[in-house]
UniProtKB/TrEMBL annotation:
Belongs to the Glu/Leu/Phe/Val dehydrogenases family. This is Glutamate dehydrogenase. The keyword Metal-binding does not apply. PANTHER family: NADP-SPECIFIC GLUTAMATE DEHYDROGENASE 1-RELATED. Residues 203-443 form the Glutamate/phenylalanine/leucine/valine/L-tryptophan dehydrogenase C-terminal domain.
Length: 445
């Protein structure tokens, strides 16, 4: 990181002690920004860096609920409204026991730049809870969501802050959250949440969008060196929303998806993943990857070791932060990986990213590669605002156009800063300058 950025970074460390994921996310962006600040003295004059690191508003609240045995449970809820220079705060809610302020802030910070890259009018925010939906009944999840929304409703709105899903939050949870919002406010305000069900205001392709978009991004990167996914081995981590639809699009483009995982281990299926079986297990039964092995001859479950040890051409980390380490990156390079596109948020450690970039692997950082999800959320908001509903084909075409333009804008920005092919610099600089210019135009607010 250049010297001129050090004081602002030191302030981030001082103000946000112990929030290591947040520090990591800020450092990663700052490391790209030296030349931008040299070229644009107005950013320093307006203290854009210092302002952009401080969320506009942070809400932390108690979420009391009653489990199926009658016991009172307490969780902590968060919403960090990070930056609204480009539009209403926009970003998902994560329900996972590891959630604390540092996770929500890292995700919210990334979201600012990701959302700017989409070219659509959305600011950045993130929220969630340390609630663990795993093993909870539908009734428990509903009561939790109702309690969560009973506080959250006063902070959100279609012009203010528009949450969506993330880890542990899918259409079921969005339904319970929307139902409670509607009940409290007595308004059918569809645009207040995205990722809604298709029969009540949701958009076609939103469920598929993050995974599809990540694969389209990988395809665009491969296209720059005259290659494609066709006939390639593809490794995917995770088996949730992003992983499943990354696998679907990779298969549609001729790739052979050979892995997926959850927190209990990873599966290798050399014949190519049976997606209808995986969807049945994960989306309908809410089962574990071991259920797949039991029903799929030839597939094997590996409980220790790393999914990135499996030789592959294209790696798509789609589970969680810091899941792809330096040792994993080394192994991927040794096995001849061509491209890595991050479906998850910050899944590669900084050391892994450095190693992949140095090795000349095509590397698509999350804020560019996984922006298709939030972009399609913005398309859902457009449909809600115009009381319209678009076809699958039209919406998917819009998503594809957006992913190509994100890819091309990252490359053009990398060229402008004399680092051709560097998608990390391209994404960080392009996202930052979009937001910084808007912040300056809006004055000191
Ligand atoms: P899901 O909850 O649908 O799936 C998460 C998957 O990752 C599960 O297979 C889960 O396994 C695994 N996982 C989660 N945490 C861990 C962990 N600590 N260790 C090992 N495995 C873990 O979430 P999504 O698919 O929606 O999200 C995946 C990633 O993509 C996240 O980083 C999210 O922020 C990012 N993302 C999501 C978008 C979206 O639209 N949903 C948009 C852009 C990014 P298990 O069930 O065992 O926990
Ligand atoms: O990380 C992300 O971009 C998301 N979880 C999706 C956010 C959204 O508002 O659709």
């Amino acid at each position: 990181m250049e010297d001129r950025l050090q004081p602002a970074f030191a302030e981030v460390l001082r103000r946000n002690p112990g929030e290591v994921e947040f520090h990591q996310a800020v450092r990663e962006v700052f490391e790209s920004l030296g030349p931008v600040l040299r070229k644009n003295p107005q950013y320093a004059e307006a203290a854009v860096l210092e302002r952009i690191c401080e969320p506009e508003r942070q809400i932390i609240f108690r979420v009391p609920w009653v489990d199926d045995t009658g016991r009172v449970r307490i969780n902590r809820g968060f919403r960090v409204e990070y930056n609204s220079a480009l539009g209403p705060f926009k970003g998902g809610l994560r329900f996972h026991p590891s959630v604390y302020l540092g996770i929500v802030k890292f995700l919210g910070f990334e979201q600012i730049f990701k959302n700017a890259l989409t070219g659509l009018p959305i600011g950045g925010g993130k929220g969630g809870s340390d609630f663990d939906p795993r093993g909870r009944s539908d009734g428990e999840v509903m009561r939790f969501c109702q309690s969560f929304m009973t506080e959250l409703y006063r902070h959100i709105g279609e012009y203010t802050d528009v949450p969506a899903g993330d880890i542990g939050v899918g259409a079921r949870e969005i339904g319970y959250l929307f139902g409670q919002y509607k009940r409290i406010t007595n308004r059918y305000e569809s645009g207040v949440l995205t990722g809604k069900g298709l029969t009540w205001g949701g958009s076609l392709v939103r469920k598929e969008a993050t995974g599809y978009g990540s694969v389209l991004f990988a395809q665009s990167m491969l296209g720059t060196v005259g290659e494609s996914l066709d006939g390639r081995r593809v490794s995917i981590s995770g088996s949730g929303n992003v992983a499943i639809y990354a696998a679907e699009k990779a298969q549609q483009l001729g790739g052979r998806v050979v892995t997926f995982s959850d927190s209990s281990g990873y599966v290798v299926d050399e014949a190519g993943v049976d997606l209808s079986l995986l969807k049945e297990i994960k989306e309908v039964e809410r089962g574990r990857v071991s259920d797949y092995i039991a029903r799929r001859p030839g597939a094997r479950l590996v409980k220790d070791g790393s999914i990135w040890d499996v030789p592959t051409d294209v790696a798509l980390p789609c589970a969680t932060q810091n899941e792809l380490t330096e040792a994993d990156a080394k192994q991927l390079v040794a096995n001849g990986v061509r491209a890595v596109a991050e479906g998850a948020n910050m899944p590669s450690t900084p050391e892994a990213v450095a190693l992949l970039r140095e090795a000349g692997v095509l590397f698509g950082p999350g804020k560019a590669a996984n922006a298709g999800g939030v972009a399609t959320s913005a398309l859902e908001m457009q449909q809600n605002a115009s009381r319209d509903s678009w076809s699958f084909g039209h919406t998917e075409d819009r998503l594809a156009e957006i992913m190509v333009s994100i890819h091309d804008n990252c490359l053009a920005t990398a060229d402008e800063y004399d680092v051709p092919g560097d998608y990390v610099v391209g994404a960080n600089v392009r996202g930052f300058t979009q937001v910084a210019d808007a912040m300056i135009a809006l004055g000191v607010v």
